[in-house]
Amino acid sequence: MGKLKIGCLVVVGFFLLIGVIGAIGGGNKSGKDNNSQSSSVSSSQPQAKQEKKAAPKEYTEISVSALMQELQDNAMAAQKKYKDKNLKVMGQVEVMDSSGNYISLHGDSYSIVGVQCMINKKDKAQEDFLLNIKKGQTITAYGTITDVGEVMGYSLKVDKFE
Fold first, then answer.
1. Closest to 105 in 3D by CA, of 45, 51, 63, 148
2. Which residue has the higher pLDDT, 6 or 89?
3. Beta carbons within 8 Å of 109's beta carbon, 6+ residues apart
4. Choosing a second label site near 5 at 20 to 30 A (CA), which of 12, 20, 36, 120?
């Protein structure tokens, strides 16, 4: 009689398992084809992406010297004004990281803090640009300010260089 109970439990368990798998796999209760709904959604998504790409970023032009002066005058005000803003920053290359992670731009006079330009290492154009510049050269960096502070200065996530 023990074998009969075990056999019944196995059969019941098997049918329960099939039922659960069927419920998970065939979740469409309305009887309509989901493909038509998903295709209409997917066709509208690329159009939205195209609209975002169509509007180019606008950059506010400023020198490293001007940024540093505002930081010295009032760091809190500088952070509020520039954090998450798109800037076109002109300055002299002061530090070039050997790993290619960042370069630092400084103004006319030497200072410990400046604008750290964080490089997108997947962008071949940025890498090529960095391989062809020298310390002391004046360049323009386009990007978004990600951090502002008295100790480190400004951090810029670079979009491109000139």
1. 63
2. 89
3. 65
4. 20
Q: Kindly give the interhelix angle for 75-82 and 64-73, rounded to the nearest 10 degrees.
A: 130
Name the class of domain 60-161: mainly beta
The conformation of residue 150, written as its DSSP 8-state character, comes to T
Q: What is the pLDDT of residues 130-143, one digit of tens each?
A: 999 999 999 999 99
Q: What beta strand segments (E) does the chain contain? A: 60-63, 86-96, 102-106, 114-118, 138-149, 153-161
pLDDT digits 0-9 by tens, 62-87: 999 999 999 999 999 999 999 999 99
* Among the listed residues 108, 78, 75, the one whose alpha carbon sits nearest the alpha carbon of residue 91: 108
Question: Computed over its alpha carbons, how large is the radius of gyration of the chain?
Answer: 29
88-130 per-position pLDDT tens digit: 999 999 999 888 899 999 987 767 788 999 999 899 999 999 9
Cβ neighbours for 51, distance < 8 A, ≥ 6 positions apart: none
Amino acid, single-letter form, for residue 145: I
